[in-house]
Structures are given as C-alpha cells and as structure tokens.
Amino acid sequence: MTQELTGIELDEPSTAQLYQVVLDMAQAAKAGNTSGWLAARYSGLPLEDLAYTCTEMLGILIENNAIREGVHPADMWRRLQTAGVDEFG
Fold first, then answer.
1. What pLDDT band is residue 20 in, cutting at 50, 70 and 90?
2. Half-sphere exposure of 15 (CA within 13 A, CB side)
3. Which residues contact 20 (CB under 8 A, 6 or more apart)?
4. Which of 23, 46, 59, 84 is surrounded by the most beta carbons within 10 Å?
5. Is 48 part of a structural domain of the chain?
6. Is residue 89 assigned to a domain?
7. How many CB atoms lie under 10 A from the CB of residue 25?
C-alpha cells in the first residue's frame, strides 16, 4: 500500500506487525496511556498501513459483534450508521 500512495518502494510490513502495533495502540488508548499510544504509533510502520489495518480490525469487530448479538452484519452496519456507536459492544 505504501508504494501506491507515495510512489516510494519500501519494505512492506507484515500483517502480523501491523496487527500487533494496532493492538498496542488500542490497548494504550483504552487505558488512557498517551505515552504508550504514541510509542506504538511511532514504531516506524507507515501511518497509512496502520490506518488501513485499524479500520480493517474495526470492521471485523463490528461484524463479530453483530454475530454475537444474533444480528445480520448488514443490519449492524445500518444501526451504527443511524444510531452511532454509543450502544456498540
């Protein structure tokens, strides 16, 4: 993804690396640990790759939550779009 956005060919981070950094960022943010979030964010992986992975993980969580609640994923997306995230999870 990085080369497509910047035109610069860089080593592609592995999916495992991206997921680990995004998980570290999420855990730090949930704990209110700004320093931990910043440390994870500036780990050296491209921001656009982290952003894509973060939104990918959010989509997985939304659809898994729908299944857990016995709701079709499309209905969960619709609910979130109309009602917001206050009742999510």
1. very high
2. 2
3. none
4. 46
5. yes
6. no
7. 21
Q: Which pair of tokens denotes residue 71?
A: 């709701």
In a domain, 88, yes or no: no
Reported for 37-46, long-range contacts at CB under 8 A and 24+ positions apart, including other chains, are: 45/13, 45/17, 45/18, 45/21, 46/1, 46/2, 46/10, 46/13
* CA atoms of 58 and 53, how far apart (whole Å): 9
Residue length of the chain: 89
Q: What pLDDT sits at residue 69?
A: 94
pTM exceeding the 0.85 threshold for the entire prediction:
no
Q: Read off the pLDDT band of 71 (50, 70, 90).
A: very high
Domain assignment of residue 79, given as a range: 2-83
Q: Is residue 67 part of a domain?
A: yes
